[in-house]
Amino acid sequence: MPSSLIIGAGMAGLTAARELRLQGWDVVVLDKGRGIGGRMATRRIEQARADHGAQYFSATTPEFQRVVQDLLTEKVITQWEPEADSPADHAIEKPHYVGVDGMNAVAKALAQDLIVHTTETVISFRVDGSQWLVETESGGHYRADALLITIPAPQALALVEKSGFPITTADKSALSTISYQPCIAVMVALNKPSRLPAPGAIRYETGDIAWVVDNGQKGISPAQPSVTIHASADFSQTHFDDDLNAIGRQLADQLANLIPSDSISTIQVHRWRYSLADQRHPAPFLAVEAPLPLLFGGDGFGDGNVEGAFTSGFQMAGRTTAL
Ligand SMILES: Cc1cc2nc3c(=O)[nH]c(=O)nc-3n(C[C@H](O)[C@H](O)[C@H](O)COP(=O)(O)OP(=O)(O)OC[C@H]3O[C@@H](n4cnc5c(N)ncnc54)[C@H](O)[C@@H]3O)c2cc1C
Question: Where in this chain does the entry annotate a coiled-coil region (predicted)?
């Protein structure tokens, strides 16, 4: 049975793994996180839930729509219109989906029946005989015929360099052009509902805050109200290394009309160094020149976002089986 190692258990890696499994491949996914899902992340604070990475996704390709249909049937996801008044969204009839129990539950559903090792940070890879040999920080060694790397491109490039693996100047330059915006995410557990008007989300075009959502109105936090605030890319860049507690309080205070200070119970902050890929490789993946199949993908390739990551993983699997 042919085998594949996949680095990264986000949407791209899990999708590639599922597709390769369907084709009869032996697949192992490695992720450095304590859990799976990458930027499809949900946190529990007190009795509340808050999505602090991806907020919702759309499905425009038939391949992703098939997966979405299954997830709808299994009640893992549901439809939610965050910007109900946006005529543009309705004009193109692009429904938005959210995880019923948060976005991370989507990743967990996709990972069913897959072999995924968490808390395994990959530190190097090389060709050893007729297979790839991947080494992790914990001392783990994994071997496979094909290697798929779905971590954000700057991290992938650092891994290539740390491994001392020779890639062509053209491949290196393709990976180097991919870039990401940072995002500071603030999660606030509340002791009473927020004052966000329905449908429970506001996107700001200017200022320090880019997005605020009421996770209760979104439907993922029935037991206790909570909001998620995403700082703008500029604010996140400028304040990335500042004291997180102070930043969390500062951003929450800016929304005092929507989340009065006496309703705030707990504030937590997460820094995403890589949030949305603003410069992407045009194709859904990059198959680099190497003695054995070596593919790079993720949301830095193709259309970006959750759906772009899905397409990247799906296409990577297709190319791997064709090699
Ligand atoms: C704040 C924020 C808001 C967003 N909002 C939206 C939205 O509303 N809609 C939307 O569609 N998209 C949104 N996105 C983008 C979306 O989350 C991503 O495009 C998508 O989830 C990326 O999936 P991926 O598989 O490419 O990467 P990731 O989800 O980042 O997965 C990569 C995985 O690789 C792992 N990893 C990294 N290095 C190593 C290593 N050395 N060894 C092992 N594992 C490693 C990481 O732990 C991670 O789990 C948002 C993202 C953020 C951060």
Answer: none
Return the bridge partners of 9, or none: none
Which parts of 122-259 fold into alpha helices (H)?
153-163, 169-176, 215-218, 233-239, 244-254
Do 186 and 243 share a structural domain?
Answer: yes
CATH of the domain at 145: 3.50.50.60
- Locate 123 and state its tokens: 């530190």
Residue 72 resides in a domain = no
Report the Cα 145 to chain-centroid distance in Å.
Answer: 26
Q: Is residue 71 part of a domain?
A: no
Q: Domain range holding 256?
A: 180-272
Residue at 132 is within a domain: yes
Are 22 and 63 in contact, with CB atoms under 8 Å apart?
no
Alpha carbon of 108 to ligand 1 centroid (Å): 14
186, 267: one domain: yes
Atom of ligand 1 nearest to the CA of 120: 43
Q: What residue ranges line ligand 1, CB within 6 angstroms?
A: 7-13, 30-33, 38-40, 53-57, 121-122, 150-152, 155, 159, 183, 185, 230, 272, 275-276, 298-299, 304-306, 309
Give a yes or no: residue 304 inside a domain.
Answer: yes
Return per-residue pLDDT of the chain as tens, 323 residues.
999 999 999 999 999 999 999 999 999 999 999 999 999 999 999 999 999 999 999 999 999 999 999 999 999 999 998 875 554 444 446 799 999 999 999 999 999 999 999 999 999 999 999 999 999 999 999 999 999 999 999 999 999 999 999 999 999 999 999 999 999 999 999 999 999 999 999 999 999 999 999 999 999 999 999 999 999 999 999 999 999 999 999 999 999 999 999 999 999 999 999 999 999 999 999 999 999 999 999 999 999 999 999 999 999 999 999 98
Regarding whether 26 and 148 lie in a shared domain, the answer is yes
The residue contributing the CA closest to ligand 1 atom 20 is 306
